[in-house]
């Protein structure tokens, strides 16, 4: 291991009374002389560590002046000594003593041995000779401990265990941990009740507290399979008890919380695991790591990252020698050996805890909240140990109010009787001569767009289009595409977008699954619309359509009618159609009016395929509020557009924006950028803010099932805070729930469930899937389960944590890997598909 002060045993103490420094130093060297371990150094010979026991290795006390702060520094393992002592005189009756030993020659038990012997020698007492030295124990361990059986047990016990406990952190995990740490103290309740529960199950208090800690970590991480480390003294022979040396071993206790057991049942599982672990405690942890061969990293410790221990508390001060007292003194910098170390102390029937945490990862407020949740859990366990672990209460009334009410206070009184196209038509009356659409060199005013879409809508009605008629639209990107979409809506129909650039098999699936009865297309693309009975080819029927009246249609569309069907990836091998009603999209459009300025909406790039729900924002938001839609083939063509200098707002995926920024293709007219569809890195955000004309970068999140966007955040320039997806948008509620649909606490990982006015009707012709994904929660009403994981930050913003399943996002495409595997299975027996790379370099890779 790299040398670090995290591998040291360090104590800072106050010595009360008149201290004889010379006698103290003689006693110190007397202890060193008794223990070979303290006179040992380590050399590397042929790539193998070899210990050298020295006959003498005197240790001198280092004296500190009043202005010098004690700072721990690495030991030299080859030269030694591996114990040192520093001292500062406070006054005649008080000294500060700093003792440090490298963990390779000492452990916590050894510290107690050290001070007992130091006290005796300082008092002039004689000590009995040691029966054995540490080297004798090491030889015995090599010759007599049956490590093969121990290895076999631990390999079987830890087979398939998760590589890491994924606790949500306040900062991204650094590539190399600094081991800087801090301490947090807390009082724990219900000691007597927990003792009684332990006795009733034939368990120890440690086992009960550990089981409760397992529940806490499971709630925070969303994992039901957890490995926690715990130290054991490993001094099973009386001869080893008076020795100074590294005897302590670490057991890896794996907790199985699957099937949501009661706490009593979990305690029985933890008890069995602990007893088995104690019976196999002789295998050194270092040897276990060699056997398991986990992926090693300087970013986290192998096998486990959290430790839990129970120890008896000692009094604050104790007699040392000849009128001297020793007391703890917290003046050392804390070294965090792991992400978290939770030590529970028992003293006179009371429990208290000390949490040592890595400050690279956690803030004090987070640890305080975690401690409060643990205390709440213990109280709930003491009151009802037969409760399912998912039901054990962790939340206080104030926190529940915050998660449910305060952070979802998004209610707006938007009009509920409008349709998408009615908003556009109202704007056309206000600004008939304003430019509505630009495509290449072509422009359409609001009046022209309104009139042409009215004509096509009348023609569609004559062809049988009415309320809820599904109309496929398969056209190239153009101004005519915008006309056609509005016309379908005005006729009362719902459009089913078909991108002619999509694979033919996907197009065929969408057409067959939607059961669209008519398609708006062109003569060249008509062959793609196989299976649709009626085709309306715009290029051949243009003259006939032009004869229709340009006046507004009398047809009134109910806001509850379908507006469009967007097909997303499906886990079972086929895409599924999300059915969105007018009222869903109208809520989004009204929110956008509040969120976006007139300048931002004055020139919106429409570069997204109409098969993506980002297109709903790009097209209908600016058209509802007097802006201009600038149609492009795709986002990467922005730099070549004739009207590029009129673009104010770009709405795309981070991977496309990465390429635009890298190639210098963002026009100086752009003042705002919306990024959605993929995780957004802060590196890209700060690069964009490096362009002075870009004043707002928004990070938006939302599934198609909730009408494009569910949460939004304006990312800050120069910020080094955690990346978030912001807060719920207007008339949207977000809840983070456990697999048992219980609210998870702030800071814990939970699945994102969304409610509110943006929720889709469901999946087209898929009642069973709709019932599975759109649930009726007994407390929070109708919700969509996203499959995404997140957590609430203290700011009330959401942090996105990934997926529960194997759905991925690649360049904005929502992809179920199972869908691709299903296609491969038609030709091969076994297949697996994974994602390689990051950002715009992501690729799907299939194995067979």
Defining key terms:
five-stranded mixed beta sheet, 848 residues, alpha+beta
What does this structure look like?
The protein is α+β, with helices and mostly antiparallel strands and 848 residues long. It contains 22 helices and 40 strands. The strands form eleven sheets. It has a six-stranded mixed β-sheet with strand order 4-5-6-1-12-11, with helices on one face. It has a five-stranded mixed β-sheet with strand order 10-14-15-7-13. The chain has a five-stranded mixed β-sheet with strand order 26-27-28-29-30, sandwiched between helices. A hairpin with a 3-residue loop joins strand 34 (774-777) and strand 35 (781-792). Helix 6 (205-221) packs across helix 7 (263-279), helix 6 (205-221) packs across helix 9 and helix 16 crosses helix 18 (614-624). The model has no long low-confidence stretch (mean pLDDT 92).
């Amino acid at each position: 291991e790299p040398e670090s002060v995290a591998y040291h045993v360090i104590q800072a103490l106050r010595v009360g009374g008149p201290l004889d420094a010379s006698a103290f130093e003689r006693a110190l060297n007397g202890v060193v002389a008794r223990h070979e371990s303290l006179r040992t150094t380590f050399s590397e010979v042929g790539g193998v560590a070899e210990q050298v026991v020295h006959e003498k290795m005197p240790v001198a006390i280092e004296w500190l002046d009043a202005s010098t702060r004690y700072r721990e520094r690495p030991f030299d393992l080859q030269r030694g000594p591996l114990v040192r002592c520093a001292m500062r005189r406070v006054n005649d009756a008080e000294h500060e003593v700093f003792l440090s030993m490298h963990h390779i020659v000492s452990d916590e038990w050894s510290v107690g041995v050290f001070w007992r012997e130091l006290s005796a020698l300082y008092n002039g007492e004689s000590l009995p000779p040691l029966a054995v030295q540490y080297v004798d124990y090491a030889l015995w361990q090599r010759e007599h401990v049956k490590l093969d059986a121990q290895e076999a047990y631990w390999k079987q016990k830890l087979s398939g265990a998760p590589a890491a406990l994924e606790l949500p952190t306040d900062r991204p995990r650094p590539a190399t941990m600094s081991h800087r740490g801090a301490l947090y103290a807390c009082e724990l309740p219900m000691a007597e009740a927990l003792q009684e529960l332990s006795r009733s199950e034939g368990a120890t208090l440690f086992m009960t507290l550990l089981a409760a800690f397992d529940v806490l970590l499971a709630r925070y991480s969303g994992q039901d399979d957890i490995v926690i480390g715990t130290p054991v003294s490993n001094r099973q022979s009386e001869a080893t008890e008076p020795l100074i040396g590294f005897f302590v071993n670490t057991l890896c206790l794996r907790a199985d919380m699957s099937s949501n057991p009661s706490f009593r049942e979990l305690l029985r599982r933890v008890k069995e695991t602990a007893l088995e672990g104690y019976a196999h405690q002789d295998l050194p942890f270092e040897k276990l790591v060699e056997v398991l061969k986990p992926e090693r990293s300087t970013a986290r410790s192998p096998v486990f990252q959290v430790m839990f221990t129970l120890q008896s508390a000692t009094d604050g001060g104790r007699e040392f020698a000849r009128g001297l007292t020793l007391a703890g003194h917290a003046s050392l910098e804390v070294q965090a050996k792991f992400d978290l170390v939770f030590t529970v102390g028992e003293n006179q029937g009371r429990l208290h805890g000390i949490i040592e945490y890595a400050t690279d990862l956690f803030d004090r407020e987070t640890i305080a909240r975690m401690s409060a949740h643990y205390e709440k859990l213990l109280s709930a366990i003491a009151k009802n140990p037969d409760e399912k672990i998912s039901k054990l209460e962790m939340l206080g009334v104030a926190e529940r109010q915050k998660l449910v009410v305060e952070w979802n206070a998004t209610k707006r009184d938007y009009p509920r009787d409008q349709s998408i196209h009615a908003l556009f038509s109202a704007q056309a009356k206000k600004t008939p001569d304003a430019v509505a659409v630009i495509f290449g060199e072509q422009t359409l005013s609001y009046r022209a767009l309104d009139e042409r879409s009215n004509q096509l809508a009348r023609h569609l009605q004559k062809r049988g289009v009415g309320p809820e008629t599904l109309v496929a639209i398969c056209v190239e990107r153009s101004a005519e595409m915008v006309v056609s979409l509005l016309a379908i809506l005005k006729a009362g129909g719902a459009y089913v977008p078909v991108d002619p650039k999509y694979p033919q098999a996907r197009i065929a699936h969408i057409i067959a699954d939607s059961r669209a009865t008519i398609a708006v297309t062109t003569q060249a693309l008509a062959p793609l619309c196989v299976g649709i009975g009626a085709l309306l080819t715009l290029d051949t029927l243009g003259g006939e359509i032009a004869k229709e009246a340009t006046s507004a249609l009398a047809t009134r569309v109910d806001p509850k009618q379908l507006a469009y069907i967007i097909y997303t990836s499906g886990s079972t091998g086929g895409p599924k159609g999300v059915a969105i009603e007018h009222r869903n999209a109208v809520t989004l459009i009204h929110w956008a009016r509040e969120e976006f300025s007139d300048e931002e909406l004055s020139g919106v790039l429409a570069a997204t395929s109409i098969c993506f729900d980002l297109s709903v924002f790009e097209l209908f938001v600016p058209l509802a509020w007097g802006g201009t839609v600038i149609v492009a083939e795709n986002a990467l063509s922005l730099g070549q557009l004739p009207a590029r200098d009129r673009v104010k707002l770009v709405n795309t995926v981070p991977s496309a924006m990465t390429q635009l920024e890298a190639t210098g293709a963002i026009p100086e007219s752009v003042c705002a950028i919306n990024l959605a569809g993929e995780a957004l890195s802060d590196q890209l955000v700060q690069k964009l803010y490096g362009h002075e004309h870009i004043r707002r970068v928004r990070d938006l999140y939302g599934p198609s099932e909730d009408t494009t966007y569910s949460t939004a955040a304006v990312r800050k320039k120069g910020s080094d805070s955690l990346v978030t997806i912001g807060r719920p948008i207007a008339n949207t509620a977000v809840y983070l729930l456990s697999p048992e649909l219980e609210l998870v606490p702030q800071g814990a990982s939970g699945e994102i469930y969304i409610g509110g006015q943006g929720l889709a009707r469901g999946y087209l012709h898929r009642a069973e899937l709709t019932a599975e994904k759109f649930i009726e929660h007994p407390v929070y009403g109708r919700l969509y389960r996203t499959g995404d994981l997140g957590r609430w930050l203290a700011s009330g913003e959401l942090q996105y944590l990934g997926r529960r399943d194997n759905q991925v996002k690649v360049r904005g495409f929502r992809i179920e890997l199972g869908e691709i595997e299903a296609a491969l299975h038609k030709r091969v027996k076994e297949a697996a598909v994974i994602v390689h790379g990051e950002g715009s370099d992501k690729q799907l890779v299939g194995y067979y």
